[in-house]
Amino acid sequence: MAADLWQRGCEKLAAELPEQQFNTWIRPLPAADVINDDDGGSAVVTLRVPNRFKLDWIRNQYAGRIETVLSELAGKPVRLDITLAPREAASGGPGPRPVAAPQHIAQALTGGPAPTANAAHGAAAARPAAAASPSPRGRLNPLLTFDTLVPGRANQMARTAALHVAGAPGQMYNPLFIYGGVGLGKTHLIHAVGNALLADKPDARILYLHAEQFITDVVRNYQRKTFDELKAKYHNLDLLLIDDVQFFAGKERTQEEFFNAFEALLAKKAHIIMTSDTYPKGLVDIDERLTSRFDAGLTVAIEPPELEMRVAILMRKAEQEGSPMPEDVAFFVAKNVRANVRELEGALRKILAYSRFSQKEINIGLAREALKDLLSIQNRQIGVENIQKTVADFYKIKVADMYSKKRPASIARPRQIAMYPAKEMTQKSLPEIGELFGGRDHTTVLHAVRKIAGERQKNSELNQQLHVLEQTLKG
Ligand SMILES: Nc1ncnc2c1ncn2[C@@H]1O[C@H](COP(=O)(O)OP(=O)(O)OP(=O)(O)O)[C@@H](O)[C@H]1O
Predict the structure, then answer these.
(1) Cβ contact 402:392 at 8 Å
(2) What segment(s) does the record annotate as region Domain IV, binds dsDNA (predicted)?
(3) Is the pTM of the predicted complex or chain greater than 0.90?
């Protein structure tokens, strides 16, 4: 019975799940091992998946469902154990394709060490666009992967969509349009898709490029009249990753060529992922024929990371640098450096350098010293009183209502909204904030902060208002 449990489970899942999901995620998996425990009262089913992002995806999306189906069929509790398939095993016989570590691929092909994560942008932009077909590496930076991208509310939608595309390119969400402010991880995310696909399908034709490189290529090929080269390069890809498409503004010839490439790729079910600093309809001087196509698949935003995510990013990056950062220091830095991840990385670098040169351990005192200049600018600006005044002005209520006991929604709502930046943008603790809001309990503040943070994700009008407030407060 154990031998065909997985087989029967698959049949049931095939009937339950949408066909495309089943074909993409479950069908390609090799048969699972089933081990019954000693007294036969339960079983463990071990599923081996070819790579990390499939592992995460299956664990998050399907593990519960699979366990239930298998338990029902087996008539006893079944626990699902999902592990990575060993490389040797994956490379032989039927089942998933061999998995090559992106780092290895990159190093083997370039003959040198992989570039650093921070070099991604510059290196790509500086390199002239090759006229021939893209290298198998597709100019991907092997360090920018899903593994090194810290997940959080701010990038949840974009990351989920990107994972989906990496697992099943050319199917849903085509084109995928990712927009957001500077330094929020858009470039990182599209490289991650390329690297994941490359790990899964080493032969996939993938190309990453910055929009400016495309412009340069178009100009060069027009000058030389080598239009076939342009076509050969851009129309024969499986995945095109193109960064900062707002740079196409006012470049008519480029837009024309991009339109051609776009249509050719979509017709072949190749996937296109674009990034931009704004949503498609917000792009200026780009032909509507293009912007409407940009919007025809899925458009997702990446928001600035919230406090907890900033803390997680700092701690992860410090760990990667071999200098773990204590949590209280990470909170201190995250509260003071809020704009984007690139700034967080800058602050981290300063602290690590300061600690190394002074040979002192990393603590809040050292971080304060290392970030002295930055802090002095910010401390001048944001205090809870300032926030209360700004929010009260914005919603046209009296500042006194911020600490009053009044409860009508027209007052209680702005008060809750004000508690959110009070927590996110100042150094004050929850009890201190509660005190400043008319002696309220810290749980009231916590409730408000969570509520507004959650609503912000779903309610674009509120999100917009908060952006305006934050910009006003930052001066
Ligand atoms: N969630 C994250 N986890 C880990 N690192 C991140 C995350 N988001 C961004 N980064 C890092 O922050 C830096 C800036 O990110 P990236 O270059 O991808 O931003 P961007 O949105 O493309 O910005 P720009 O619009 O300026 O091109 C990179 O070093 C990237 O690896």
Answers:
(1) yes
(2) 356-475
(3) no
